[in-house]
Specification:
The complex is a heterotrimer of chains A (304), B (860) and C (205).
Chain A: H1 3-35, H2 38-64, H3 84-108, H4 113-138, H5 150-180, H6 189-224, H7 228-236, H8 239-263, H9 270-297
Helix pairs in contact in A: 1-2, 1-4, 1-5, 1-9, 2-3, 2-5, 3-4, 4-5, 5-6, 5-9, 6-7, 6-8, 8-9
Chain B: H1 3-8, H2 17-23, E1 27-28, H3 30-35, E2 44-45, E3 59-63, E4 75-80, E5 83-89, H4 106-109, H5 111-115, E6 125-127, E7 145-147, H6 150-168, E8 173-176, H7 181-187, E9 193-195, H8 203-211, H9 225-228, E10 233-237, H10 241-244, H11 249-258, E11 262-266, H12 272-277, E12 280-282, H13 289-303, H14 313-319, E13 320-321, H15 338-343, H16 353-360, H17 364-376, E14 380-384, H18 395-408, E15 434-435, E16 451-453, H19 457-463, E17 465-469, E18 472-475, E19 480-483, H20 488-491, H21 495-504, E20 508-513, H22 518-521, E21 525-528, E22 537-541, E23 546-551, H23 563-574, H24 586-595, E24 598-600, E25 607-609, E26 611-612, H25 615-621, E27 632-633, H26 634-640, E28 642-644, H27 659-663, E29 677-678, H28 682-691, E30 713-715, E31 720-721, E32 726-732, H29 745-750, E33 755-757, H30 759-764, E34 772-777, E35 781-788, E36 796-801, H31 819-822, E37 838-844
Parallel strand pairs in B: 1-2, 8-19, 9-16, 10-11, 10-14, 11-12, 13-29, 19-20, 20-21, 26-27, 32-36, 33-35
Antiparallel strand pairs in B: 3-4, 4-5, 6-7, 6-21, 15-24, 17-18, 22-23, 23-28, 24-25, 30-31, 32-37, 33-36, 34-35, 34-37
Helix pairs in contact in B: 6-23, 7-23, 8-18, 8-28, 13-16, 13-17, 13-18, 16-17, 19-21
Chain C: E1 5-10, H1 19-28, E2 38-50, E3 53-65, H2 74-78, E4 84-86, E5 92-94, H3 104-108, E6 115-117, E7 122-124, H4 130-134, H5 140-144, E8 150-154, H6 155-162, E9 181-184, E10 198-199
The chains are: A mainly alpha (304), B alpha/beta (860), C alpha+beta (205).
Chain lengths: 304, 860, 205
């Protein structure tokens, strides 16, 4: 792996996490609105929303390092007609623009609530299509290790797993920020935080289960789908890394997720909650980076 | 700067036009240069496209492809404003099998990288720890270098030659010279030389002794390429023309195959020629061919009958002596006939297929089959590479080939033949159909008669003794070596000892070179020379149908000078008559060759003048000469760069060796005592015995040889293998022409110089394909990646000759895989190199080594 | 019918000398590591015992390969900038004014035709020596082949002349991209033990 391929790891992970976070945040916001009020919901999600932009920007920036001539990256959208890479870049940019527009509207509370909702919904839809496009980029007939349904499924699992845990971590950060500023008194934040965290932790566990179904299945799929060479590389050179990746995600989303789930209902223990949410996120993040590294490191092209 | 320009910038050369022109297009990788800490921004980078767009149209100049590669092809350089941009090959006429273009090979196509590569030597250099008298000799080959001026370099070289002559005499100067310094040193009182057959093995003495001098008996015999198509069977025996003969030979064989010839390859390796030509491959152990030949002879002798004739008695009786007791040459013991030797009548050892198979490894049934096929298929040609006779004591082998061909009558008939068919004339025998004239320069006599055999060369330097003949050991005291254009240290057997001689004995070593060759690396003073691309022009002869007339392609690079300029400058400083060193101007020499160029008349009756010369040519060239009518004008010849005689099947230019002799031996007698081909050959026996190393029988007999198959055993009778249980033979490698081109990155990338081995042998040693392995002989050790393949027979390995020695000083191993490190230099027979009889062991190596093309280039 | 230039590769006569590869490097000024044309040496088979002696049953052949100028070039389909295009005569080319060096084409091409130029940060490849073709000359590789194993022509015409083989070991399935190549097979490709073929000296290609 060289700089160019690490750039792709960074881009795909950060972009997928951004999409996942945006969607999860939207769901949490919708729940909070119903359960509490639009204002309270905004209180919960506005700061987290602002963190998504820079994450996505960082991912897009990283993608430039993949190019031989990054100054002309814009040309990458010239071939929407047939290139999934073009579509990926176009969708990525559109998602970024819609997301930024929504964040701006939301921040300044411009436009009606409904309008903002439409923009958010649009952004989320584009984001999800983006994740699909990202997967399609790799589903080349000459890349048997990638050219399976496991690619989009695992990309979506990454999207939601990282999105969920990132949002959990962001909420904890928001909480901590408000607490440090002494603004927690009378805020609905404390009230909302625990059930949200509990739900996110549960979602994480469910997604983990999915991951544990997808990861071995995708290897099996590689073995039968003409990518035996990739399986060979994975097991001979990267066996330890693959095991570590599974261990980390299990520890993060599973062990810490469960712990978070159980702790979320216990009164007090704010510090512990924070640590749990962040540790779970960090472990899963590292695991997903390793997983993506393996994705690139083990592909073997058909032919010469 | 607009966007278009930002993008374009990396595409353009970073050098200014002026510096670009000044330095010519020296091409090379900047990464390498940067890695070596050199600031040579003027070097053009390769990744950039060929050239900045230019308004000037370039011109195609015929560029020399001068290497001793086994081919001779047309190369043209596209030159724009003095800068060589790319090469092309022959497009002077449409291509057809009968009248083929003279197409350049991979080496020729890489010539730009050789001449204009970043590792060209640029300035005279002096070894940092050398002082007149030797300095620290042990640092030769690993010292640092100091740039010096030409004047200082020439003064130092002349000063040392003078000092050594005055202290020790001319015999202390070993002259490995042939590019000009041979004249200077001859005028200065002479110099010791080295000698010995290399490429052609033992044929140079065997052929003429048995049959008298014949056409081109040393390097090529048999049929011309069109008559070769009449062969029904072609046995390629120890030859791989696809590797050893660049240009058309492999293509010519393909035409014979298309015409219906069956091809049998007899070789330890299923080689690249076999892959396109072979109908059958018979693997055989190196250095054991004579056993197979004798085994075949046994079958022919014992199974021949009136109803089933396997021996051409008519030919034997009319044209040979020595086959049986009734046809012995005058004065010879009738018992010493070939037939009875093979049958074992007197020694009790029949040389039957079973006996042969134990030695050569060919199944007895296969020997039988081959003998019958050879004896009953007419015409059959045996194409010999040099390999079978680059074997210790292999006079017997060459003699046996000739004998077997006589027995079968597969000699002197169109489509039949035997003997060497190699190099650029491979598969295309016969006198040249077009030749250049002489330069007009006469050779000068060397008054020193110290002649050191190549096998003993470094021993002689170290020990002070050499063999001058049978019972004639003489003293010698070599103190300096002058290398001008010879690659002796790298290319002669016993290089391990050669390095010792350089590091222990020699007081002074000087080398002329255009890259840091092994000789230059182990020298004290390096003088950078021009390549033929930088010279006025000249001629190259290749196969019999062509004459190439090349021209200057580029001005001399950096401070490189012509070999003859150096010879004269040193001569001046030695006080010799410089006028004799280079008595004729370059232009006049070329013109003399043009004037004297001859071409065969279409009816084959004799040669006629080739080049039309007019008064205006003479005036334009500024030379002496007389107008003459010919077939092609000077200007046309120069523009085309080649004159090729057009051949057609059935024309009068065909050739078959011994054809007239076979038709009427009395009318066309051989120059031998019996006027016939001598199977029992006292001339040969006496000649070989007189060299002083081994005793030769008048017959082709089997002898256990030094480092042959038997020597791989500790106990032959019980078949217990010894310390060096594998046989190694050396091959001409595609990356190089001998040692030339070894430094060229494009070729290093294409060919990784592996040692080739059978997987069974590797398995027994725990060796995996592609790994680096350690190959050791009694004489030295090299490291090489291994190519495991069933194409190689078990028990045998091979390695390409010519790699530039790269010593790992910590272990003493040669990491480049130079085969002369493994070959000991064992003098036998006529003092030929016995490269293909060498015993080795191959072991797993636990270190790592980069592929050759990733090594830093030798840039001074 | 649209035009499609193609290479004919006669594997039966190729000795693997790599003159084509080096001529290509000279013509295109390619640094070490970048090969528009490569030659694969393939070997296989083994030894069988007969009366206590081992007898060979081995084979070898060489295959010279460059860009296949495919009829369905995957590199063109995936190229995000449109820098990859097909000329009217079917040559797949890269527009140097457009390519941004994303290297996606390298992932897509099953023939290893795409070679990244580190100096320009762009993709590069065999362009059939289009500049020479336009002048009526032959590509450098074709003009230098000492065995006359390479030839160019209109795909349909070459197919009519030499048959339609476009997939031999070690080439990938022709269905992937429909390569514009016509191969005269080496006899060894049809042997019973052809399945033991492997690329020899893989480091050299």
């Amino acid at each position: 792996m060289n700089v160019r391929e690490w750039a792709l790891v960074a881009f795909t992970i950060l972009a997928q996490m951004s999409v996942g976070a945006f969607v999860v945040l939207g769901l949490v916001h919708a729940w909070a609105m119903q359960r509490y009020s639009p204002d309270k919901a905004d209180q919960l999600s506005d700061r987290a929303l602002l963190a998504i932009g820079p994450t996505l920007a960082l991912g897009l920036l990283a993608s430039l390092f993949h190019l031989g001539n990054p100054l002309f990256a814009y040309r990458a959208v010239f071939n929407l007609a047939s290139s999934w890479l073009s579509r990926e870049i176009a969708l990525g940019s559109t998602f970024a623009l819609l997301g930024a527009l929504f964040a701006f509207l939301q921040w300044r509370k411009i436009g009606s609530f409904e309008l903002r909702n439409v923009v958010a919904l649009l952004a989320a839809t584009v984001g999800l299509v983006l994740v699909y496009a990202m997967a399609r980029v790799y589903m080349l007939p000459t890349q048997p290790a990638w050219n399976t349904w496991a690619t989009p499924v695992s990309f979506f699992v990454t999207t939601f797993l990282l999105g969920t845990l990132a949002i959990g971590a962001a909420f904890v950060a928001t909480y901590w920020w408000e607490w440090r500023g002494g603004r927690l008194q009378g805020s609905a934040l404390a009230e909302m935080l625990r059930p949200v965290l509990r739900t996110l932790a549960l979602a994480g566990i469910v997604l983990l289960g999915l991951e544990f179904v997808v990861a071995p299945l995708s290897v099996a799929l590689m073995a039968t789908g003409g990518a035996a060479a990739s399986v060979g590389i994975l097991t001979s050179q990267y066996g330890v890394m693959f095991a570590l990746r599974l261990a980390l995600v299990f520890l993060g989303a599973g062990v810490f997720g469960l712990w978070l789930y159980r702790t979320a209902l216990r009164p007090g223990a704010e510090t512990l909650l924070g640590r749990l949410a962040w540790t779970a996120f960090a472990l899963v993040f590292v695991s997903e980076v390793l997983g993506r590294f393996l994705f690139y490191a083990t592909h073997v092209k058909i032919g010469l | 700067m607009n966007q278009k320009h930002i993008l374009k910038r990396p595409l353009d050369h970073t050098v200014s036009r002026r510096s670009f022109l000044k330095w010519n297009a020296v091409i090379g990788g900047t990464a390498v240069l940067a890695g070596m800490g050199l600031k040579m921004g003027r070097l053009v980078t390769l990744a950039a496209p060929s050239a900045p767009p230019t308004a000037t149209e370039g011109q195609w100049v015929t560029a020399a492809c001068w290497h001793n590669c086994g081919g001779r092809c047309l190369l043209k350089a596209y030159v724009v404003d003095g800068v060589v941009q790319r090469l092309k090959t022959d497009d002077t006429h449409p291509d057809s099998p009968d009248f083929p273009q003279q197409r350049a090979c991979q080496r020729g196509r890489a010539n730009r990288m050789q001449v204009l590569g970043p590792d060209r030597l640029k300035y005279p250099m002096k070894r940092a720890h050398w002082t007149p008298g030797g300095g620290d000799k042990s640092l030769r080959g690993r010292d640092t270098w100091l740039r010096i001026s030409w004047d200082e370099a020439l003064n130092l070289v002349a000063g040392e030659i003078k000092r050594i002559k005055e202290s020790y005499g001319n015999g202390a100067i070993l002259g490995e010279v042939n590019a000009g310094m041979e004249r200077t040193l001859a005028l200065y009182g002479g110099y010791a030389t080295s000698w010995g057959s290399t490429s052609w093995g033992t044929w140079p003495d065997v052929g003429p002794a048995m049959a008298g001098p014949y056409g081109d008996s040393y390097s090529n015999t048999g049929n011309d390429r069109l008559r070769l198509r009449q062969s029904k069977l072609i046995i390629v025996w120890g030859a791989n023309p696809a590797w050893t003969s660049g240009g058309n030979p492999a293509y010519n064989y393909l035409q014979a195959k298309k015409a219906g010839a069956k091809f049998i390859f007899i070789d330890p390796f299923y080689n690249e020629s076999a892959q396109v030509l072979a109908d059958e491959w018979i693997p055989i152990r190196p250095a054991t061919d004579i056993a197979l030949l004798l085994g075949m002879a046994y079958v022919m002798i014992t199974e021949d009958s009136k109803t089933n004739p396997l021996i051409d008695w008519d030919f034997l009786n009319r044209c040979t002596v020595g086959f049986d007791k009734d046809h012995m040459p005058a004065g010879a013991d009738p018992k010493a006939n070939f037939r009875d030797y093979v049958l074992g009548t007197y020694d009790g050892k029949p040389k039957d297929p079973r006996w042969a198979s134990e030695i050569c490894g060919v199944l007895p049934e296969k020997i039988h089959e081959l003998a019958i096929e050879y004896a009953t298929t007419h015409p059959t040609t045996i194409i010999n590479g040099g390999t079978t006779t680059r074997v210790h004591r292999a006079e017997d082998t060459a003699q046996a080939f000739m004998t077997l061909a006589c027995m079968a009558g597969n000699i002197g008939l169109p489509g039949a033949g035997v003997g060497l068919s190699v190099h650029n004339r491979g598969g295309n025998a016969g006198p040249s159909l077009v030749t250049s004239g002489g330069t007009g320069v006469q050779a000068l006599k060397n008054n020193i008669d110290i002649r050191l055999n190549q096998n003993e060369l470094w021993d002689a330097v170290l020990s002070g003794h050499y063999t001058a003949g049978k019972g004639d050991s003489r003293k010698v005291d070599i103190r300096m070596v002058y290398y001008d254009a010879r690659s002796t240290l790298n290319q002669k057997p016993g290089a391990t000892k050669g390095i010792r001689a350089h590091r222990e004995k020699l007081e002074f070593v000087v080398a002329q070179a255009y890259a840091l060759t092994t000789q230059a690396k182990f020298a004290d003073i390096i003088l950078p020379v021009t390549t033929p691309w930088e010279k006025e022009g000249g001629f190259l002869t290749g196969n019999r149908e062509i004459l190439i007339f090349y021209s200057k392609v580029t001005e001399p690079l950096f401070e490189a000078r012509d070999d003859l300029w150096i010879a004269k400058e040193i001569g001046k400083r030695l006080g010799v008559d410089v006028a004799q060193i280079d008595p004729i101007s370059d232009k006049q020499k070329i013109f003399n060759q043009l004037m004297g160029a001859k071409v065969m008349k279409p009816d084959g009756s004799g040669m006629e003048t080739l080049v039309t010369i007019t008064d205006s040519d003479i005036k334009e060239w500024g030379v002496q000469g007389k107008p003459q009518p010919g077939r092609i004008s000077v200007a046309d010849f120069k523009a085309r760069g080649v004159y090729q005689v057009e051949r057609k099947p059935g024309d009068r230019l065909g050739f078959t060796e011994f054809e007239k002799f076979r038709q009427d031996p009395a009318a066309a007698p051989r120059e031998t005592p019996s006027k016939k081909i001598e199977i029992h050959c006292k001339t040969l026996a006496d000649k070989i015995t007189a060299y002083g190393w081994t005793v030769k029988s008048p017959l082709p007999v089997y002898q256990r040889i030094e480092e042959g198959y038997e020597d791989t055993f500790y106990d032959w009778d019980n078949k217990v293998k010894g310390d060096y249980p594998l046989q190694m033979y050396t091959i001409h490698y595609r990356r190089r022409a001998h040692s030339n081109f070894d430094n060229v990155s494009w070729l290093r990338e294409a060919f990784h110089q592996p040692v080739i081995m059978n997987p069974t042998d590797a398995e027994a040693r725990g060796i995996q394909d592609g790994e680096v392995v350690k190959v050791s002989s009694r004489h030295g050790t090299v490291l090489r990646p291994v190519y495991l393949t069933n194409r190689m027979m078990p028990g045998v390995v091979t390695l390409g000759e010519g790699a530039w020695i790269e010593l790992d000083e910590a272990t003493g191993y040669d990491t480049a895989g130079n085969t002369n490190i493994l070959n000991g230099g064992i003098p036998t027979g006529q003092g030929h190199a016995g490269w293909n009889s060498c015993n080795v062991e191959v072991e797993k190596y636990y270190g790592t080594q980069l592929a050759d093309h990733k090594w830093p280039q030798r840039i001074l | 019918m649209s035009r499609q230039l193609a290479f004919h590769v006669n594997a039966a006569v190729c000795t693997g000398c790599k003159a084509c590869q080096v001529a290509c490097k000279d013509k295109n000024n390619l640094e070490v590591g970048r090969l528009f044309r490569r030659v694969y040496d393939v070997d296989g088979g083994g030894w069988v015992e007969r009366n206590g002696f081992m007898e060979p049953n081995v084979f070898a052949y060489s295959l010279s390969i460059s860009c296949m100028h495919c009829q369905s070039p995957l590199c063109l389909e995936v190229c995000p900038t449109g820098a990859t295009f097909k000329r009217a005569d079917g040559i797949v080319m890269v527009n140097k004014d457009v390519c941004i060096g994303c290297r996606y084409c390298e992932w897509a091409c099953p023939y290893g035709a795409r070679q990244f130029n580190e100096a320009t940060g762009q993709s590069s490849k065999c362009d059939f020596c289009a500049d020479l073709l336009d002048k009526g000359e032959q590509p450098a590789c074709v003009a230098t082949c000492p065995q006359r194993a390479l030839e160019i022509g209109e795909l349909s015409e070459l197919q009519a002349k030499y048959g339609a083989t476009s997939q031999v070991y070690p080439l990938p399935e022709a269905d992937l991209t429909q390569p514009s190549i016509v191969i005269t097979p080496h006899p060894a490709m049809l042997l019973a033990n052809a399945n033991t073929a492997r690329v020899a000296k893989p480091g050299e290609v």
